[in-house]
Amino acid sequence: MAIGGYPTSYILGDTQTVSIGTSSAQSTAVSGKLNVYRIIGSCDSHIEFGVNPTATTSSALLPAYTIEYIVIPEGEKVAVLKFATQNGTMYITECTR
Known about the structure:
mainly beta, four-stranded antiparallel beta sheet, 0% helix, Jelly Rolls
């Protein structure tokens, strides 16, 4: 993420993990006040956000080892589902300035 064309830096906080497999799995609800989270998965996966989300094959695709900075409203969760044959882990890290 960049502001005015310059890279934005964050202080990384607590990280939670979610197993990525053949059925949709949810994180715990996020509680950070800044609402910016760094998300990276160890395999290609579908991701979905919401109060009670379910990731499906129609959900957004996050390629393996791609870092995304996502705004997630407080109290919402991340759901993940594997894209192909490989299982993995999704890492969701709180970001502050």
